[in-house]
Amino acid sequence: MVARSWTHRQRLSLHRICAGNGTVSFCLSPSNPDDQQATEIISANLREAHIPAFRKRLEPNVPEAYRHLACLVIVYDGPTTAADCDCLVSQTQKAMQPVCVASGLLLSELHPHSQVASARNSALFPSQPPVPIHFLRRLIPFDIPYILRNDRYDQATFDLMLSALLSIFNRGVVLRQMERLGKTHLLPPDFLMGTD
Q: Is residue 132 helix, strand or coil?
């Protein structure tokens, strides 16, 4: 298992991410990482096992005041190349993010070859741990500009996630978070005029 080959510092770093109110779930990736079926298997596992586990087993054991800190880290053992990581982690995240957002959750993709730049600094790539990981947690307002990115999602998916975010946060919260990073140009004109 990949986690066994991590350095002590890497293990401590992962432990810090999950310390206190979090939990770690280790998963094995499918044997044919370039196969479309692999993404479908991981998506099904997220939908049918990990999201329900987060909601039914993890969150109830965390005091309400700290539930926004609860996280589920899913570490994939196997994919090492950029192509494998893209297929198994990045493509799955893009496909499953609307499902997660509709559930009030954020699914982050992290892998050694990630080309997802920071929402604040396009020259910074903070999502590059030593192994592929999905990170699942509750949505918070600061996630809004990360989710509403037209460089990651087509317009239909963008609109779907904006609608889901508006069912969780009020319009003012969404607008303030997009203003904070100078991203209001991504919002539909009717949203900006307050006629949404």
A: coil
Q: Quote the mean pLDDT of the chain.
A: 78
Q: Kindly tell me if the per-residue pLDDT of 126 is higher than 90.
A: no
pTM, rounded to two decimals: 0.76
pLDDT value, residue 24: 57
Length of the chain: 196
Which residues, including other chains, have CB under 8 Å from residue 51's CB and lie 6 or more apart? 99, 100, 103, 105, 136
- CB proximity list for 183: less than 8 A, separation 6 or greater: 119, 145, 148
Distance, CA of 157 to chain centre: 15
H-helix or E-strand spanning residue 105: strand 105-110
Give me the torsion for CA of 136, 94, 101, 119, rounded to 10°.
80
Max Cα separation, the chain? 54
What would the pLDDT profile of 40-73 be if each residue is shown by its tens digit? Answer: 888 888 888 888 888 887 777 777 777 777 788 8
Q: Comparing C-alpha atoms, which of 85, 86, 88 is closest to residue 37?
A: 88
Alpha-carbon torsion angle 60, 61, 67, 71, nearest 10: -100
